[in-house]
Amino acid sequence: MKERKIPKETIDRLPLYLRCLNKLIDQGEENISSKNFSSRLNLNSAQVRKDLSYFGDFGKRGVGYETKKLASKIREILNLDRRWKMALVGVGNIGSALLTYSGFDRRVFEVAIAFDSNPQLIGQEINGVEVEDVSNLSGRIAEEGVKLGIIAVPASSAQQVADKLVEGGVKGVLNFAPALLDLPEYIQLAQVDITKELEQLLYYL
User: Mean pLDDT throughout 90-102?
Assistant: First the structure.
């Protein structure tokens, strides 16, 4: 049977649903209706029901969704029910901020290894992570079994770093460099371009 294709927009909304559910759980809420869900996230209730229906039948008529059960299912769908090692390349302003960022769920995301080309940074320990020489990138990625890479280097170096990450066995890349990367189709790429977001924001202003 042909696998049902799930829209990217639906996947993009799942983390928002999870954040909302986690907040409700912290507040002691055991259930939430699709209407309440949609109003909290500025969506319509039909969209919420459609998104969740791609993965199963989680709601009960007259009751809504069980917050803990649905949160657990979404974590499973997003592969957040396991620990992922990450490699950070570039320990400048953005990289240093990521190493000390407290927003990562440490049960899921672990910055296991960091790299830079600056001799003054190599060997330093930041938030428990030692900065290593970027020339050893591919080999160390393979040794550590890292599957997620974060690029926080200048645009001129981003493609070379991305190639080394792929060579080491990384399957997903989060790119903070303002550069368009040419990667194999099997590599999942997420781009964080602050300048582009600001430029788009200006249009709506």
Answer: 92
Render pLDDT for 136-170 as a digit per residue (tens, 0 to 9): 999 999 999 999 999 999 999 999 999 999 999 99
Q: How far is CA 159 from CA 79, 129, 166, in A?
A: 27, 24, 11
Secondary structure class of 96 (helix, strand, coil): helix
In the beta sheet, which residues pair with residue 149? Answer: 87, 173
Phi, psi dihedrals of residue 126, rounded to the nearest 5°:
-120, 115
DSSP state of 57: -
Tell me the CA distances in angstroms from 110 to 148, 150, 184, 191, 195, one per residue in order. Answer: 10, 12, 25, 20, 27
The residue extents of the domains of the chain are 8-76, 84-198
Angle at 157 between CA 152 and CA 160, to 5 degrees: 105
| Tokens of residue 196, six digits | 């582009």
pLDDT number for residue 2: 42
What's the pTM?
0.85
Burial of 58 (0-12, 13-18, 19+ CB in 10 A): middle
May I ask the CATH class of domain 8-76?
Answer: mainly alpha
84-198 folds as Rossmann fold (3.40.50)
Spatial separation of the C-alpha atoms in residues 25 and 31, rounded to whole Å: 9
CA distance 131 to 27: 40
Amino acid symbol at 86: M
The H or E element containing residue 62 is none
